[in-house]
From TrEMBL:
Residue stretches making up the AB hydrolase-1 domain: 213-450
GO molecular function, one term: serine-type endopeptidase activity
GO annotation (BP), single: proteolysis
InterPro entries reported in the protein's UniProt record: AB_hydrolase_1, AB_hydrolase_Est10, AB_hydrolase_fold, Galactose-bd-like_sf, Pept_S9_AS
Keywords carried by this UniProt record: Hydrolase, Signal
Gene3D superfamilies from the UniProt entry: alpha/beta hydrolase, Galactose-binding domain-like
Protein name as it appears in the record: Pimeloyl-ACP methyl ester carboxylesterase
């Protein structure tokens, strides 16, 4: 059976700029619970501990993944040497392989894990030229029956591993923690720079959807190299966070405020120097927190929409349809139909009474040249509880009220948050803030990855990490460091 790695995991990639040894914190664990821990038995002292999955299935239904950072020429040796152990003796498999649909395997080896740390090497010959990020070191966990601990990885053969690990000096130490919030406890990871604190901190805020930790790896690594800690956390009801998952802007803001409070309570964090970095929906939450808390030191919004209430949502829908090459005048009936439906939902009208409004919206979308299935999918994306409560969103007002330095970044190929009107709205909202900056990268999409062609979400898995463009990482890193130090 072909080895299957979830799509969300395939988006993870290590930067080619990293050293040949990668910290254990960069392992991505899927299909089971994992924690960041400390263990002096491995170089750098940081490990990733994965619990056995709740139910045993195919070997690849749970695993640990770390993407190969560099390109490989045809015929070149591909090797990874890594540290691993298990709570009790057991066997599993490690491989270097490509993504779906072929899952071409370059090399594999059996692992005889014991309670003692060992170094294992997987090595093979590239059958063809392999692009950076196209291959991954993967350890199967789907059938393990005890905890597996993984240490750092050196992208070198066994013969060069001792020297590589001896020279390894990690930039940060990941620490798992919990954050109390309203009717929920958030599970997070604090990436602390190596050295003496207290450290300034940046809190990263996820975009729309059931997102856990991850998605800011390159930005976090840059911050850590600058001596800035970074906190990421699972949304409520997602991953290891408790509570009920709901896309409620009020609760999301409360959770971010709880994260700020938790950081200010730590002796290793300088609570007077806190930044917020929000992507997409997080770019709406960050200004909401900062507007209510003038002591926030900096705000970065990445693809964050700007506006207030239902007019903001109507304009976003309008711009998305125009970006899909529908005539501006022709999209108005669809926008009007969407607003009629959403306002009826906001007023609490029954499902039966809004059924004609739902049908009317599908008809209007189909009239724009979309197929009926496409129009029905559009309805699903529009008719959501968070859209019903759009009147609670006031990102333009919040940006205008934010006194901290603000960086708003947009992608010219973004199909969701259309750069030209959103950047203009951001400039208007921030006009009175002399420490504000609005930047548009014409060739980047909503996910801020180099190499976007259409900007469609289907490209994401092929283009490296979320917010991985070195230009964006450098811009954000420079801005936050300048604001917090």
């Amino acid at each position: 059976m072909k080895a299957s790695i979830p799509l969300a995991i395939a988006a993870f990639i290590a930067s080619p700029a990293h050293a040949q040894v990668e910290d254990a914190g960069r392992w991505v664990i899927y299909g089971t619970i994992s924690t960041h821990e400390r263990d002096a038995g491995v170089p750098g002292g940081a490990i990733r501990a994965a619990q056995p999955p709740a139910t045993h299935a195919e070997p690849w239904t749970s695993g640990a993944v770390l993407k190969l950072p560099q390109a490989i020429a045809a015929g070149e040796t591909v090797a990874a040497t890594f540290w691993a152990r298990a709570a009790k003796p057991m066997r599993t498999t490690a491989a270097i392989q490509g993504p779906e649909p072929s899952y071409t395997r370059v090399a594999s080896t059996d692992l005889a894990l014991t309670p003692q740390w060992q170094r294992f090497t997987v090595a093979g010959t590239a059958p063809a030229a392999l692009a950076a990020g196209s291959q991954a070191l993967v350890v199967t966990l789907g059938q393990v029956d005890s905890a597996v601990m993984l240490g750092p990885v050196a992208w070198v053969p066994a013969s060069g591993a001792a020297k590589a690990f001896a020279a390894y000096r990690p930039a940060a130490v990941p620490v798992d923690l919990t954050i109390p919030s309203k009717a929920a406890t958030l599970a997070g990871t604090l990436h602390l720079p190596v050295g003496c604190g207290p450290f300034p901190v940046a809190i990263v805020l996820q975009g729309h959807g059931p997102n856990g930790r991850g998605g800011f790896d390159e930005v976090i690594a840059r911050l850590n190299r600058d001596g800035i800690a970074a906190l990421e956390y699972d949304k409520r009801g997602i991953g290891q966070s408790t509570g009920t998952y709901v896309e409620d802007i009020g609760l999301l803001t409360a959770d971010a405020q709880a994260a700020v409070a938790a950081m200010r309570a730590r002796p290793d964090i300088d609570g007077s120097h806190v930044a917020l970095i929000g992507h997409s929906q997080g770019g709406v939450v960050a200004p909401a927190v900062a507007a209510a808390d003038p002591s926030i030191g900096a705000v970065v919004t990445l693809g964050g929409s700007v506006g207030d209430g239902f007019p903001m949502l109507a304009n976003a829908l309008r711009q998305q349809m125009i970006a899909a090459r529908r005539p501006p005048a022709a999209v108005e009936p669809a926008v009007e139909a969407a607003m009629a439906l959403l306002k009826a939902r906001a007023a609490g009208r029954s499902d039966a009474s809004v059924t004609p409004l739902r049908t009317a919206l599908v008809d209007r979308i189909e009239a724009l040249g979309f197929t009926r299935p496409e129009a029905e999918e559009g309805l699903k994306r529009i008719d959501t509880p968070e859209a019903w409560s759009a009147d609670k969103v006031h990102s333009a007002r919040d940006l205008a009220a934010t006194k901290a330095p603000v960086l708003a970044v947009y992608g010219g190929k973004d199909p969701l948050v259309i750069a030209a009107p959103e950047a203009a709205a951001a400039r208007t909202a921030l006009a009175a803030n002399p420490k504000a900056k609005v930047v548009v990268f014409d060739d980047l999409s909503h996910w801020f990855q180099d190499g976007a062609v259409t900007g469609d979400e289907k490209e994401v898995e092929k283009l490296g990490p979320n917010i991985g463009s070195p230009r964006v990482v450098a811009l954000v890193g420079d801005f936050v460091a300048g604001a917090l130090k």
